[in-house]
Each structure stands twice: as structure tokens, then as C-alpha cells.
Amino acid sequence: MIKVQREDFDVGAELAALSAGRGEVGAVASFIGLVRDVAGPGELSAMTLEHYPGMTEKQLGELEAEALARWPLDRVLIIHRHGRLLPGDRIVLCAATSSHREAAFEACAFLMDWLKTKAPFWKLEEVGGQSSWVAAKDTDEAAAAKWTKNE
Amino acid sequence: MIKVQREDFDVGAELAALSAGRGEVGAVASFIGLVRDVAGPGELSAMTLEHYPGMTEKQLGELEAEALARWPLDRVLIIHRHGRLLPGDRIVLCAATSSHREAAFEACAFLMDWLKTKAPFWKLEEVGGQSSWVAAKDTDEAAAAKWTKNE
Amino acid sequence: MKVLYFAWLRDRVGVAEEIVEPPIEVTTVGELIAWLAQRSARHGEAFADPAIVRCAINQNYAKADESFSRTDEIAFFPPVTGG
Amino acid sequence: MKVLYFAWLRDRVGVAEEIVEPPIEVTTVGELIAWLAQRSARHGEAFADPAIVRCAINQNYAKADESFSRTDEIAFFPPVTGG
After folding, report:
1. For an engineered disulfide with A36, which of A141, B26, B104, C20 has Cβ 3.0 to 4.6 Å away?
2. Three-state DSSP class for B88?
3. Is A133 on the interface with C (CB under 8 A)?
4. Per-residue pLDDT at A43
5. A151, pLDDT greater than 50
6. What average pLDDT does this structure show over D21-31?
7. What is the pTM of this model?
8. Are B123 and D82 inside 8 Å of each other by CB?
9. Which residues of B touch D75 (CB under 8 A)?
10. Gyration radius from chain D CA atoms
11. Is A130 part of any domain?
12. Which CATH architecture describes the domain D2-77?
């Protein structure tokens, strides 16, 4: 399931709904991404997430399908927020459920690695009144690439 | 933090508390283990988790310390229930928080692998009125062993 | 045809989308980038380093040698930084 | 000295704990298992395959060649199956 939204989400309720009534599911692996506080002492920081409506849902939907095809999963959940967020705010929740914990863990890590390099979101960071776009990280590209090499 | 308890736990509240006010934490990886429904159609199943009070807390505490020593984590959480549980009930919650998502993911998988082979819990499965102790799995031993080889 | 810009590409170009009419010989993403870069100083700045510009045709990633049609939805943006 | 049993080891022995007085020459975990196995038919069944019996001395895992003192808390149990 894919949700792209401005509002916050309820982690406990989302994860409970994902496995509710699914008798074969013994493993729920999940990841929550939070806004880090990048400001120095006494400064305020914030982060605005811009995205490409339509393409985001399409890319995340393909990511979900890819995870379901690669691992013996029951379900996949990706919730990604956009708009202006403050330090400590939740940005993203990824989860994968399975009867096998290895599959759930691997799929969840895969979701995050691919999401970081494929989902069309951009972070605008505000620190002490200055705004700047966050640069993409080579380490994210490398993390995503390792899932391709393994095929 | 280690909690060994009979009662259920609130996943959303536990994970939120783990990162609350920790400005450097951007990554929360977690795992929830659930009781699977092993009964056939029309049958009821249940699971009773016995443990070794005292040793459980000691082993989980050492596991937490080991994870904190191996990865750049902020915090570790392990909650494990005991007593009689029904299909779909939560058994365990493991979580690791970090500024790096790889560290959080790896530490969380490590916690589960070691917990499966070191924490003194035993599962008694009831299916259709018959009780039997669940046998340990070789795959769990192998999963735990891989964290030793890497040293 | 319509072209969309996101994040700092939009900031540099100055608009989130625009209607452009590239000449008929412009058929690939790479050629479109080269043509757009000539449109104004702001465009030139936005497309100064094509290696860090990503393109999507109809919301799918597209490389420089891919061709597009005039009815496609074309978008340009920096490497993504979500998650 | 006190010995604790858990899970199917307890079911087979028939008690969760018992006070035993092994002779002075019994000093290692392996020797204690061999001595306990002789105590009764139930003990014999519980310790029939020492390879699948785990031991903890004062709540730390202990191998067959480890020695214990009479004041230690000794526990025997099957391979664990939590999580």
C-alpha cells in the first residue's frame, strides 16, 4: 500500500492494520525516517519536502511491486509525507510483512534504498533563516546499486 | 532498554518514546514478531512462552550492550512477552535508532538473530488440544553465527 | 509542449512549468536539454551541468539518448533526496 | 545444591527445580549431566541426548567442560525458541 500525504501518520495503527487477520504473518519489519535537527545551538531548523505528484505514486507503486516480486512477502507499506516539517517529525514509514523475518528485513532495507534514489522528493533545508536544497548522497546511490548487482 | 513482560505493548508509543527529543536520530528500524496461526481450518491454536526469569533480562541486557558497541546507535529497545498468546498477538519488539539507516537496520536484524538463539524463551504450541514444544531451528543458529564470522 | 521543473532546477529557471516549441530535429532528452539551455541565462544556469539533471518522460526516468514525442509530459529535476 | 529445569527438560524430569548432592568428584557441567542422568528413569530420559541440552551457570551459558561450584545457580534447558 502506498500513501503520499501532507499529514502525519500513526505508526502503531498502520503496522497493526498491515498484519491484522493475516494468520501467516509472523514478521513485521519497519523503518521510520525522521527529520534530524541540523541547526546549531539556539538556532531553529526546518525541512520542506517537495515532490512530483503523480510520478511519486507511480514510482512508489513500482517499488512495492518489485519488493513483492523479489521476496516471499505478505504485504508492503510505504507512507511518505511532503510539505514543511520540523526536527523530530516523521517523514517516511516503510514496512514489509512476511512469515520469514529475513525476507521482511531485506525487503524493508531494499524499499528504503530504492526510495532514496528513485522516489521524486527533494529536501529544502532551513537553518537560521537560510534555505538550501539538500544534495543527493553518493552513498545512497551505492546502497541502491547493491540490489541490482545481486540479480 | 529491556522489558520482559506478560502484558502487550503499544508499538507506536514505544517507538515514539525511543526517538523523542533525540535530535540526531533520523532512522528508527524495528521488528515486530507475531504469533502465527499454525492450526488447520476450524482449529484453534495458541502459544505459551516460558522463560527463565533473571537470565532473560541478563542475556537481553548483554545483547543491547553488544549492539550499542558494534554500531553507531543512539538507543536500543527490546520488549519480549511471556505467557499464553493467541495467533496475531505480538511476541517481541526490537528497535534500534541511529543517524544512519544502515546501522539501524543491521543492528535490528542482529538483535533478532541473537535473541532467537540466546534469550532463554521456549515456545509451547497448542493445536487442536495437543501441546508440543517448538523445536529450535538450524536456520536460526546459522543466522546468528554470521554475526560472529564478520568480526 | 509542456516541460516541468522541480526543486533547484525550478528555482534557477524561475518557473515550475512552461510551454516550449523545440525545432523538429530535437528528438532526444539530451537534445532537448541542449536546446533549453540556450533559451535564457537562467536556463543556461539550470542546465549548466547536464550530468546532475534527471529527466522523466510521462513520469518514468529517461536517459539522455531517449526520444520523446510532443504530447509527452517531460520533467527535469535534480537527483532525488527523499526518505 | 539447586538445579533448575525449563521447558521439556522440566516436563521429563517432572520438577522445575530440585536440591541434589553430587559426589565431590563431579566438577564439570558434563559430569553433572552424566550424574543426573543416573538418578531416575525420568532423569535418564531428560538427559538422553546431552548434545541438545543447554546449561547456564549463574545465568550465563556454560559448555560441558566448564566447572561449577556448589553455590552456583545451575540450569538445564533445551535450545531456546523465543522471538
Report:
1. B26
2. coil
3. yes
4. 77
5. no
6. 97
7. 0.94
8. yes
9. 52, 55
10. 12
11. yes
12. Roll (3.10)
From C27's Cα to the closest Cα of chain A, the distance in A is 22
What is the separation of C-alpha A142 from the centre of its chain, rounded to a whole number of angstroms?
17
Q: CATH number of the domain at A69, please.
A: 3.90.1170.40
In this structure, is the dihedral angle defined by the CA atoms of residues C46, C50, C56 and C60, taken in order, positive or negative?
negative
Chain B touched by D4 (CB under 8 Å): yes
Check CB contact under 8 Å for B29 and A28.
Answer: no
Q: How far away is chain A from the Cα of C43, in angstroms, using its nearest Cα?
A: 18
How far apart CA A50 and CA A121 sit, in angstroms, is: 6
Whether the CB of B36 is below 8 Å from some CB of chain A: the reply is yes
Q: Give me chain D's average pLDDT, please.
A: 97
The answer to whether B47 contacts chain D (CB < 8 Å) is no
A105 vs B contacts (CB less than 8 Å): 31, 105, 108-109, 112
Q: Any CB–CB contact under 8 A between D82 and chain B?
A: yes
pLDDT (average), residues C69-77? 97
d(CA D56, CA B59): 11
Domain residue ranges in chain D: 2-77
Q: What is the pLDDT of residue B142?
A: 87
Range of the domain at B71: 2-145
Residue A105, chain B, CB below 8 Å: the answer is yes
Once rounded to an integer, what is the mean pLDDT over residues A20-30?
Answer: 95
Checking if the pLDDT of A149 tops 70, the result is no
Cα three-residue angle A77-A79-A82, rounded to 5 degrees: 165
Is position A151 within any domain?
no
Q: In total, how many domains does chain B have?
A: 1
Per the domain annotation, does A36 fall within a domain? yes
With the CA atoms of D27, D33, D38 and D40 taken in that order, what torsion angle do they form, in degrees rounded to the nearest 10?
130
**ipTM for this prediction:** 0.94
Which grid coordinates belong to D81?
525458541
Only one residue has cell 511518505, namely A80
Q: Which residue stretches of chain B have pLDDT < 50? A: 151
Residue A15 in any domain: the answer is: yes
pLDDT over 80 (residue A41): no
Q: Do chains D and C touch (3 or more CB pairs under 8 A)?
A: no
- The radius of gyration of chain C from alpha carbons, rounded to an integer in Å, stands at 12
Q: Which residue has the higher pLDDT, D66 or A138?
A: D66
Q: What is the pLDDT of residues C28-58, one digit of tens each?
A: 999 999 999 999 999 999 999 999 999 999 9
